[in-house]
């Protein structure tokens, strides 16, 4: 029988029994035809490959991630994925949607149509994430209909505004959920439900939201699984307790591994989903279990029944590993065709700018002055109790604490309070909103950082200890049409230009990784103490991530879902 490829002498992962069998695999027209003992005596192959006793596993599948978190284009992202054995992803482009709305989503999908890795998109469901922020674009129900009609859509992306879903039946998010359930009843609805338990959790599931990828605890994970929710485990949830639970309990059908957000330097240095799988194995999970959680389990969740397993009729996406425990990738095949070999040159394709001209002119702000970092207070001279955002290592969640701060001649003397200032400025030229707050904890102890890479509204966010450094950092970002700038003592010590919508660059992954590493080191040199300082500062403006955050509307009490004042009361 004629076939295209015959892979002989390999240990083939059988997903249905979660075990390896020794044998051969035949591929025809990009799909697996046969897996078993038969070889060249039964097949006339156009190409024969001696597996040399290596391990053959399905291509890895990541069903929850944001390409924009790596700050590169889909083409560049695919280049990084393939060498790390990830052959299928479900990206949700809600960052570019917050900047450019429906057109941003369509342009992003257009930029990914020729990538080697398959990209099946999630529709951004929460753009903006709340009604308490200004964004460059929005996604409405009519936009959902257009995307479902014209694009390769596989699910409704994470429902983020859980407070409104529970408390406001008529909110925009509930309108979107109800529209999807009534008109697209088979469309999967992804969720973002940090810390919810009991009735609130069940109300979210009742609404149609039946997955969660946020930071997990044993209590929360058990409650979710017991109620029928699918868990997507990202690295920050891989605590010893959570991993022990997954290893010891028969819950393989109720979870998978995902990456969510991967910084470019981590992508370059450690890998992608393969890093998560390798880490799981290192924490005591059997390789067979970890592979299942990154191949067939996510494929089932997204109803991608044509992949995630090496069996007849399935797409021929697979990896050849020389070391199972270390997940050492030697070759990657996509639809039966070799697309990566560790022994061969692997270089990115350099392409011209992929986006419309106005995507490179999205920061519509005049330069700031030092006076823009003065905080005016309509209170008499006295000492006041103010809210203070506390950053903590190990999480992107923050805490609210209180600080005593003087007000003199209508100005908040924040520099004398022992706190840094956090400020945000609407940058789309819509309303000129700005807001101020105090910040402390595991953040910088001197200098300033400014960025337009601030989830999810991507307005200009500035944190600093003196107005001069804050002005310089902010204006560097404005002049660069977006990105990051780190300043100390009047000098720029790190810059990352993100000219596409203020959140992306078209530079090669290796260069972006180097610049991101320099950025991270510069932030740490100012005293930032966090496992991921870039993601930490980027989520200070995310009003769906507990507990105290800031947008151009003001300070946000996330758990109450409302804007709260900086000044609480006069000290007695």
Brief rundown of the structure:
By secondary structure, the chain is an alpha/beta fold.
Overall description:
With 572 residues, this protein is of the alpha/beta class. Helices cover 26% and strands 30% of the residues. The chain is built from 15 helices and 30 strands. Strands 18, 19, 20, 21, 22, 23, 24, 25, 26 and 30 form a ten-stranded mixed beta sheet that branches. Strand 27 and strand 28 form a beta hairpin. The protein is globular. It starts with a strand and ends with a strand. 54% of the residues are buried. The model has no long low-confidence stretch (mean pLDDT 96).
Q: What is the helix tally?
A: 15
Overall, the morphology is: globular
Structural class: alpha/beta
Q: Which stretches are poorly predicted, pLDDT < 50 over at least 5 residues?
A: none
Count of DSSP strands: 30
Give the end-to-end Cα distance, rounded to a whole number of Å: 89 Å
Share of residues in strands: 25-35%
Helical amount: 25-40%
Mean pLDDT: 96
Radius of gyration: 25 Å
The biggest beta sheet is recorded as: 10 strands, mixed
